[in-house]
């Protein structure tokens, strides 16, 4: 079975939404009307003029923050870091009218309708996914959002249920592993019922949080989505290998 062909999208809007986050809106005239998009799902971007060692175009994975089927517009937020990788570099220099190819979207393996309360733990790389899911929850949803950003200027105004308690943690140097989310997770008050837990971010941090959750009796019945989006010191292709070797 052949893989679906990439869809060519055009930049129609660009905004710096925080100190280290750029938002692009991408329009695709020929986007399939039957695509299966859900809050927090991912897409693959084919980075223009960026080739891997085998001369294939470089693919980079990003959360589709939102998708408007009537306007055929994807909204994607890019965390800006230095040194800039090919996708970050493209986003920084993108202008309205520029084009990029997109594959997907791919399914996010979490059902946010399950469980009685929520825990979200996300760094800058996973912030768009976490916010996308939180903004889709019912108004009576409750729980915690443990969000790690690089600077006070990276805080965002987000439209989430009022009973989701947001805690922002400042970690200015993402190349150094952080324990702030894990430490916060250890002391949150356990609410009544089954927790639905979303954890995403840097690989070594994610593994420590996963290990803690697996060894903590109070989370034995939790519904969990745990995924690393990157690893300190590795490119995306290298991160994929590291993730597969020791998930």
Helices and strands, with pairings:
Layout: E1 7-18, E2 21-27, E3 42-51, E4 57-63, E5 66-68, E6 73-79, H1 86-93, E7 99-106, E8 117-122, H2 127-134, E9 142-149, E10 163-170, H3 180-187, E11 195-202, H4 203-215, E12 223-230, H5 236-245
Parallel strand pairs: 8-9, 8-11, 9-10, 11-12
Antiparallel strand pairs: 1-2, 1-7, 2-6, 3-4, 3-7, 5-6
InterPro entries: FAD-bd_FR_type, FNR_nucleotide-bd, Riboflavin_synthase-like_b-brl, SIP_FAD-bd, SIP_fam, SIP_rossman_dom
Organism: Mesonia profundi
Domain FAD-binding FR-type: 4-112
Features:
247 residues, Riboflavin_synthase-like_b-brl, Siderophore-interacting protein, SIP_rossman_dom, alpha/beta, seven-stranded antiparallel β-sheet, five-stranded parallel β-sheet, SIP_FAD-bd
